[in-house]
Amino acid sequence: MKISNKTKRTFAVCCALVLVMTFFTAPAYAADDPLTVVNNLSNFIFGLIRAIGLILLGFGIVQIGLSLKSHDPSQRANGFLTLAGGVIITFAKEILNLITGG
């Protein structure tokens, strides 16, 4: 499949505009304290981890429900393992705080 020069040029212009808007117009909000920046980043990353854990929790519940409908013990075991993994990932920050005492 051949791409015309006009399409390539349009794509290059769009990419350049996105790069310019991303790097030169986005203000940087920096805190005075570097520890605050690290804590904010940590909270953001743990929020992403929590979202992944909730997705795994939902998938585990669906797997358990489907295994109960089809009477499949191996799928049921996988569902419970996925559910347990989702719970652990969802509460990873709290588990780490309990372990470290923080």
Q: Which key phrases capture this entry?
A:
TrbC/VirB2; 4 helices; mainly alpha; flat; TrbC/VIRB2 family protein; signal; single chain; transmembrane helix; 102 residues
Describe the protein in words.
The structure is a single chain. The protein is mainly alpha-helical and 102 residues long. It has one domain (5-100). 82% of the residues lie in helices and 0% in strands. It has four helices and no strands. The longest helix has 37 residues, at 34-70. The chain crosses the membrane at residues 46-68, 80-99. Keywords: Membrane, Signal, Transmembrane, Transmembrane helix.
In short:
Keywords: Membrane, Signal, Transmembrane, Transmembrane helix. The protein is an all-alpha fold and 102 residues long. It contains 4 helices and no strands.
What's the helix and strand layout?
Elements: H1 5-24, H2 34-70, H3 73-90, H4 92-100
Helices and strands, in N-to-C order?
A: HHHH
> Could you say how many structural domains there are in total?
1
Count, helices: 4
Distance between the termini: 58 Å
Shape designation = flat
Strand pairing plus helix content: what structural class?
mainly alpha
- Give the tally of β-strands: 0
Q: What level of helicity do the residues show?
A: over 70%
Largest sheet: none
Keywords: Membrane, Signal, Transmembrane, Transmembrane helix
Pfam families: TrbC
Transmembrane segments: 46-68, 80-99
InterPro entries: TrbC/VirB2
